Amino acid sequence: MNGSIFTAATLAIAFSLAAPQSMQAAEGAQAAPEILRRISASRIAVISDGDFLARTYGTAELAPRNAGYRDLLTIMSPVGEKIVTGSIPVSNSVTSAPEILALSEDGQTAFVTERLGERPKGGNRISDLPPGRRLFAVDLSDDAALRLSDTVEIEAFPEALSLSPDGESVAVVSNTPEASFVQIVAYRDGRFSRLARFDLADLGVRGSEPAPRGGVTSTNVHWHPSGRFLAVNINTQNRVAFFEVTGANDAPILRPWGNVVEVGADPFVGRFTPDGRHYLTANWGRNFTAKNLEGRIPQTPSTISVIRLADPATSPQSARHDLLGGAETGLSSEGIAISPDGQLVATVNMRGTAFPPGSARFHRDASVTLLSFDPATGAIARLADYPFEGSLPEGGAFDRTGDHFLATVFQGHDWAGPEAGPGLEVFRVAKGDRPALKRLGRVPLPHGVHHVDLAP
User: Fold this and answer.
1) Residue 197, number of CB atoms within 10 A of its CB
2) Residue 258 to residues 240, 312, 429, Cα–Cα distance (Å)
3) Distance CA 159, CA 218 (A)
4) Rg (CA), the chain
5) Of 422, 369, 371, the residue nearest 393 (C-alpha)
6) Which residues of 350-374 are buried (b: 16+ CB within 10 A; e: fewer)?
7) pLDDT of residue 249
8) What is the mean pLDDT of residues 398-426?
9) CA distances from residue 119 to 5, 52, 67, 113 in whole angstroms, order as listed
C-alpha cells in the first residue's frame, strides 16, 4: 500500500531489481520511466493476479506461496519528469475477461471486481479458490497512499464490469450456477448504494442446453457513450444482447433494446465505438465441450464482428441492429481496444503462450493485431500483427491521444530477462495512410498483470 515519488533513475528499480537496460532489442527502445512520460494519461491503472501462474490453466496448481506474489492494483501517474506510483492489495482473478478494472473519467477512483476470491490458508489448487463476490472502489486522490473507499457484495463469479459515462453507476455481469445476472450499483461520494439485479432469463436471454443457466454465460458488459444503453456478450451462444437503461440511478430499469445479434464464435469481450454507432466484439473461438486445454483453445485465428446499432431515437421494440461483417485477428485474442478517434482497433492475442514450453502448440511470442476501422461505414481491415515475448497477454488500451498502445503481459518466460517479464508492453502508434505500431519497450510490473486502464 506504500507509495512514493520516483525519479526517472529509480522507477525501473522500484518495479524490477534490475533496470531494463536490455530493452535495446527494440528499435528506438527507451528506459521504462521515459516510456511512461510519453504516454498521454493522467493515471495508468494495472491489475495483477498473484494466485495464478501461466501454467496454472494446464496444471490447476496455484503459484507457490514462497513466490511472494500478491493480488495488486498498481497506479502510475506521469507528473512532469517524475512518476508517482502506488499500489494496494485488491482481490482479483485472471480467470475473468480482461474487463474487471475501470478508472473514473477524472482519474480519482478505480473499480475492481473479483471472479474468484482470495486464496484460503492451505489452498494450492484452482478448486480451492472460493467464488468471488465483491466489487471494490479504490480512492486514488493521493497517488502515493491509495485507499479502499468502499466494498459491496454482488452475485457470485462476477466476470466483467463497466463504469457509466457519468461515473455514477457500475454495471457488472455475474454467472452463478443458477442464473446469469446484470447488476447496476450506484456510486456517489465515495460510497456504493443500492444494487439493482436483473436475471438475463427474465430479459429474454435464455438457453436450453443441459448446462448451468441453460448454457448462458455472460462475459462482457459495456456502457454506450450516451449512458442510455448496455451491451452484454453471451459468449457461449455467440450472441450480443442490448438493453436500454431507464429510471433513476438508485432504481434503474432494464429492458431489451432491439434484437439480439449473432456474431462470431465465443465473443469474449466487446466495445462500443466512441461515436456510439457500432459495437465490436473480439471472438476468441474456444470449444466449450472440450475436456482439456488442448481441445479448448482453438488452432484457428480469432475474429472481430462489427454490429451497426439502431438509431437511438427508434423505439426499443422496433430498433434493429445489423451484423455488418468482421475480420480475422491473431490466435486466441482476449482484449480489444478502440482508438479515441475510432479509426484503429487492436486486439491482444495470447497465441500459444498458455501452453507449457514442451507442447507442440507452445509459442514464446504473443502478439497485437492492429486493424483499421471506418466509423462511417463500419468497414474493418486487418493491417498487421506485432509479436512480443511473454505469456498470457490479455488486456490492452490506447492512450488519450491514440499515439500509444499498451498491452499487458502476465508473466515472462523462465529463460528471459527483465525486458520480457511481467508488465506493460508499450507501442508508439504511427499514423497516416498506413498506420503501424513501433515497439518502445516494456514497463516492468509485479507478476500477474492482466488488465490496464488509463484516465485522460
Assistant:
1) 14
2) 11, 10, 36
3) 7
4) 20
5) 422
6) bbbbbbeeeeeeebbbbbbbbbebe
7) 65
8) 89
9) 31, 10, 14, 15
Looking at residue 130, the DSSP 8-state letter turns out to be P
The label of the residue with cell 444482447 reads 241
Q: Measure the CA angle with vertex 81, ends 79 and 86; round to 5°.
A: 50
> What nine digits make up the cell of 389?
515475448
* CA proximity to 115, closest of 150, 148, 155: 155
Amino acid identity for residue 290 in this structure: A
Using a pLDDT cut of 70, give the percent of the chain over it: 92
**Cβ distance 19 to 12 under 8 Å?**
yes
Least Cα distance to 450 among 419, 399, 406, 389 occurs for 406
Confidence band, pLDDT 50/70/90 cuts, at residue 13: very low
Beta-carbon contacts of 455 under 8 Å, excluding residues fewer than 6 positions away, are 41, 42, 43, 45, 103, 104, 105, 106, 107
3-state SS assignment for residue 47 = strand
DSSP 311: P
